[in-house]
Amino acid sequence: xKKILLIEDDPFVGRMYRRVFSMNGYEAIWVWxxxxxxxxxxxxxxxxxxxxxxxxxxxxxxxxxxxxxxTATRDIPVVILTNLAVPEEIExxxxxxxEKYLIKSDYGPKQVVTLITQLLGEKKTAYFNDAEVY
Amino acid sequence: xxxxxxxxxxxIFFSITLFVWQTFSGSVRTTDSxxxxxxxxxxxxxxxxxxxxxxxxxxxxxGLYASSTGVTRDEFRTFIYxxxxxxxxxxxxxxxxxxxxxxSELPGFINALTRELTVGGNENYLSTTVYADKxxxxxxxxxxPMHEETPHTFGAEADADPVIAQAMTAxxxxxxxxxxxxxxxxxxLVMPVFxxxxxxxxxxxxxxxxxxxxxVVDTAGASSITMKATDSAGQTLFTTGTEGDSSRNIWTxxxxxxxxxxxxxxxAKPASQTDYExxxxxxxxxxxxxxxxxxxxxxxxxxREAIKNDELVKGQxxxxxxxxxxxxxxxxxxxxxxxVLHNGVLAKILKSKExxxxxxxxxxxxxxxxxxxxxxxxxxxxxxxxxxxxxxxxNQWLKVYVAPNYLQGAGSDVIGAMITVDDITExxxxxxxxxxxxxxxxxxxxTPLTTIRGNADMLSDYYGDKVKxxxxxxxxxxxxxxxxxxxxxxxxxxxxxxxxxxxxxxxxAPIDLSQLIAEAVSEYTDTAKRRKIxxxxxxxxxxxxxxxxxxxxxxxxxxxxxxxxxxxxxxxxVTISAEMKEGKVGVTVADTxxxxxxxxxxxxxxxxxQAGTSLLTRDTTKGTGLGLYISKLIIxxxxxxxxxxxxxxxxxxxxxxxxxxxxxxx
Lengths: 134, 666
Fold this sequence. Notes:
Radius of gyration of chain B: 68 Å
Helix content of chain A: 40-55%
Number of helices of chain A: 5
Low-confidence stretches of chain A: 129-134
Number of helices of chain B: 16
Strand content of chain B: 15-25%
Mean pLDDT of chain B: 81
Shape of chain B: rod-shaped
Number of strands of chain A: 5
Largest sheet of chain A: 5 strands, parallel
Oligomer: heterodimer
Radius of gyration of chain A: 14 Å
Helix content of chain B: 40-55%
Largest interface: A-B, 19 and 19 residues
Strand content of chain A: 15-25%
Number of strands of chain B: 22
C-alpha cells in the first residue's frame, strides 16, 4: 500500500484529501503543520508528500527546503497542493525540487488522485529503469 | 434711468455755470449801462457847460455894445481875437454885430462903410445888397469869421433870412439871448443890445451843429458813444456817428439853450466795451457746460472703472480662494513659464516653508525624477496637456499635471500653463491595499470553495451509483456546478487584478495558433453537439506563421470567445478562422447567435459588462462579465488587439483578435 503524507493546515481540505486517498487504496497520513510534517516524513518515509504552501509558523516553501536538506527525506517526491496561484511561487517551488505544482481549485479530488497515481507510476518506471542501468 | 453720482454732479456743476453766467451777463449789462450813462451824462454836462460859456461870451459882447455905440469894427475884431474866441471855441463859425440903422442914418452908414473899404482896400468887405426903402434897417456892422469858409462881410441886411429875423424879433421881445432855428448846418445865438432902453442892435454867434457836437464828444473822450440832437419838432439837428450804430443802450436827456429845448439822444454801440468782456458770459456758459460734461464723463468713467475694478477684485478673490481651497498644489505661469501665481497647498504638499515659488525652485524640489522645465516647455510649444507618470519623491508619491491655459477656450492663444501637483501617496497605498485585499480574499475564498466542490465531486464520483434518488443526484450536481462557477469567478478576479496591475508575466514564446485553436475548439465540441449547433474550425489553406504569445493566455482568450459564441448561439453555427494580415495573425470567431444591440456594443470590453441592457436583464447565469475585459487586457498585454467586427441582433456577432508574428530569430 502506497503511503502518502499530507501536510495541510485546513481541516476540511485535509480531511477531504485524506478521505479520497484512503478510498483509492492509499495509506494517507495527515499532519496540520510543517514541523509535524518534517517529523512524519522522516519517521514514516512516505512514497509521496502533498504539501500546502500557506500555513502558519512554517510555510510550505520552508518545509520544502528542509525536506530537501535532510538526507532522510531528500528523495521523497514532493507535490505542492495549494490554492496560491502565483506564477512566481510556482517557479520557486519547482526550482526547489517539487515534482509538481497543483492548484487545488483547478482539480477535483478524484483528479488529484489520478494525477498522483500517474506520477508515482512514472516514478516507479523511472526507478526500474534506473535499476536496470545499475 | 437710474440716477447716478455723475448725473447729480453734472447738474450741480451745470447749475453753478448757469448761475455764474446769469450773474456775469447781468453784471456786464449793468456795467455797460452804467458806463454808458456816465459817459452820456458827462457829454450832456460838457455840452451844457460849453453853451453856458457861449452865453457868457454873448453877455460880455452885449455889455460891450450896450455901453457904447461907437465901437469900431477894429475894436470888435480885436476884442474877439484877444479873447481867443477864434481858437478856443470849436464849433463857432462867426461873431456878428448887427446895427439898427434908421432910414435917415442909412446914407451916413453907407458912406462910412465905403470910406472904410477904400482905406482898407479890401473888396471882400463890401456888401452888394440893395437896400429896400424901409424906416429902419438891421444891417451887419461886421461879421468876424471863425472859420476859413466864412467870409469877412459887412453891410448886408441881417434879417434877410426869415429864421434869423424870427429869432431877432423873439430876442427883442424877451430882451434875452435867443437861439434861432436851424440855419444852414447850424444855428444862431441872438443877443439883443439895448442903448438907453432902445434896441440898438444884436450880437449874433453862428454855431455849427456837427463841429459843436464833435467838440463835446472829443472833450468827453467817449468815441464809442453817438450823440443825436433833435429839436422840439423832432427834427434831427445833427448826429455823431451813423444811425446804425445806435441800436442799443439809448438815453435821452433834455437840453435847454437860450430858451430853445433840444433833446439829446445818446446811443452806445454794442461794443461800447471790449468784445472780450461781452463774450465773457458766453465763455463762462460754454466753458462751464464743457467742464460739467467733462466732470460728468470723468465721474461716470471712474464709476464704471470702480465697478469694473470691483468685479475684477471679486473675480480675483473668487479665483484666489478657489485656488487656495483646491486640494492640489496649483500654479499658473505666463507664456514663458514664469510663475504668475500659486497656492499655499503647493508648499504643504511638498512639506516646504517656501512661499515664493519659481519654476526652478519647484523643479529642484521635485528632484531628478521629474523634468518640470522640460514639461512646461513642451506643453507651451505643443499647446497640449502633459499627463506625466507618477514619481517617487523620497517616500512620497507625486503626480504632476501640466496643461496650457488658453485665452478663450481650447485652441485659442496660449497665455501660459497650469501646473497641478497631487500627493497620491495615500491613494497609492489605498490602491495597493485594495489590490492586496482582493488577492488575499480571493485566495481565502478558494480554499473553502475547493472543499465544497471537492466533496460534491466525491459524492457523485464515489456514491453516485449507490444513491438512486434523482433529486439527490441533481442537488449534488448543482452544488458542484455552482462551486465550479464560483471558483471561475474568483479566478477571473485574481487574473484581472494581476493584469490591471501589470503583474501578469506573459511567458512569450513562438507558438502555432492553429494547434491552440484546434485544442480550444475541441473543448467545446461536446457542448456544441449538445446544443445542436455546428462548430467549424476553418483551417487556412497556407500555413500560418508562428506568433509571439503566451500559449496559456491565448488559450484563455480563445476559450472565452468560443465559449461565448457557443453560449449565445441557439441555432446555426460558430465558425473560427485565421489569416495573416498586415504583419499579424488575425483570428475571427463568428456566430449566428442572438447578436448585440448597437447601444451595448461600446460597453462590451468594459469591466463587469455583458451585452444585456441593464443590471436587471443581465444574464447572471452566464458569467462575471469580466471575460471580454480580461481578454482585452491579455491581447493588448501581448501587443495585439481585439474588437467586435460586426454584430446584428438575431443575426450574429463577429469577434476578432490579432497577435504579432514571431520574428525568425526570436
